[in-house]
Amino acid sequence: MRALATILLSGSFLTQCVAQTDWPIYGHDPGGQQFSPLKQIDTTNVSKLRVAWTYDTRPAAVPASEGVEAKPAPRNRASQATPLMVGGMLYLSTPYNRVVALEPETGKVIWEYESAYPPSGRGIAYWGGDETLPPQLIVTTMNGWLFTLNAKTGKLTTTFGDNGLINLKMGVADKFPRGRYGVSSPGAVYKNLVFTGAQLQEEPANGPSGDVRAWDVHTGKLVWTFHTIPRPGEKNHETWQEDQWENRSGANVWGFMTVDVERGLLYLPVGTPTPDFFGGTRKGPNLYGSSLVAVEAATGKLKWFFQTTHHDNWDYDVTAAPALIDVSQNGKKIPAVAQWTKQGLLFILNRVTGEPIYKVEERAVARDNPVPGDENWPTQPFPVKPPPLARMTFKAEEVSKVTPEHEKFCKDLLALEGGAMTGGPYAQYGPKLRVIFPGWVGGGNWSPTAFHPDLGYIYVTSHDLANVNKMVPAEDGFTFRRVGPDAAPPNLGGRFWDGVKKWPCQQPPWSEIIAVNVNTGDVAWRGPLGEFDELTALGVPKTGTPEPRGGPIATAGGLLFIGASIDARFRALEARTGKELWAMKLVDAAKATPITFQGKNGKQYVAVLAGGGETRPPDNPGGRLYVFALP
Fold this sequence. Notes:
41 strands; five-stranded mixed β-sheet; four-stranded antiparallel β-sheet; mainly beta; 3 helices
């Protein structure tokens, strides 16, 4: 198997060759299943897992010497990057403008490339090479550049783009040179194409576009563009009224795309058109905002779309990787795509047609806090199965009671401005202060799901954190206002919690990891993800910690590995039951998705990046890669 990794084949075929023991793509495979067939580490021995080596991403301070000024270490920077392991090298991008190649068994640095631009915060992509070009690392940056590196040497490939660089802002941000444009997640790869999305502004309405584009990996030439807001003459343009589509920003893919290599389909999780919370200047359903879109990977031609939120006034971006899975029913396998959403709904669709495998109902939602000049869509889609996997409603009597002090804090918060409105699902942001579940961070978020094909289980990380907000008049209509220090306790940040302790204001659980049987649509098991030591010491059952970042991975050894909780623990769970089998406290929260791989020595390793998270201790290394193995 490893010998195949040295043969210069097409990128997509090479990926399939090395996938059994390596981790060559963010989701392990082009379809984002986050599953490894490795099983050396299993439910019987995972409790013996130990740190094999670590690597700190923050450059060390340089002391003064003769003729050289001292250089302090840079400040801590957050990172959510997931490494790649392919062809005997472990690749990692860091928040300090570097890409490094490490020896997977020891952590020894093989090469390091320092860029003038910060790589995307969640990692890089890999292309396997062919007879004319060796394997490449594909690097997108937080400020909107694209470049490639020789995967073996770390040298910039100067034949790509303009002497090695492509300015991604050109063609999509020309009218808005100061508009926000970057790339927060790694691109996707199919054959000789590289696909890029963008991270854009939340408001105002006009700004750089969220178009998805394909680039030739050999030359950097633009191959196709898909307009996420359809233009005149394109299908579904008529859903936009007047000229409200023009110069509209948002509707961007800032999360992860996935590829059905066999069928040549690319799946795009598209976000909310701008502005996020006021739709008065974007009347109608706002296609393809807040939708899962399937296009031909070779051409960018639309195949189908499924909108998860109509006229999205909640910032319920579709952003988690669409997971390509198989659903078994009546003795047949159905090719499916599972889309996890911020509103805590899991849609399971036929990946060829876009039709729901489990019935989806249009249900009436609240329209009781109207915003002048805007009109909420009267219905929203709900899958009959599985049920909502995050809290979508709230009543005042459901306030948290984990301690008397916290209960008082939360009741005082509810009493602001004469008493906040509650309700749901899809409770309306409006002129009156309101508690809305889920808030704009979810529910779900960018954290990918994992799929265990042997069990037929898909795993999601979900949390229950509300916004407490209202809409206030602005120059171009109304704008979203976060209730903060001037009107409420400090560190609130517009969220329904104690921002100092990070304790939400509804009864726990505050976050969960959940297994869904995709063959039946039923929840197989669920349990809290993370804990607050202060509450545990008081005898409070494990609550889960809000804002999980980073998803789980599943293995043939019957395990799930996950960080994602702000208690800075990295855990192994039994995939069938959710039982915690092992945990280790890290230097900081691991807000990245882990990987597992086999080294040249035959050992299975598990790796995860921690740092730049919530705890920020004095000795925080600014990003530490932990690599674990059995003794």
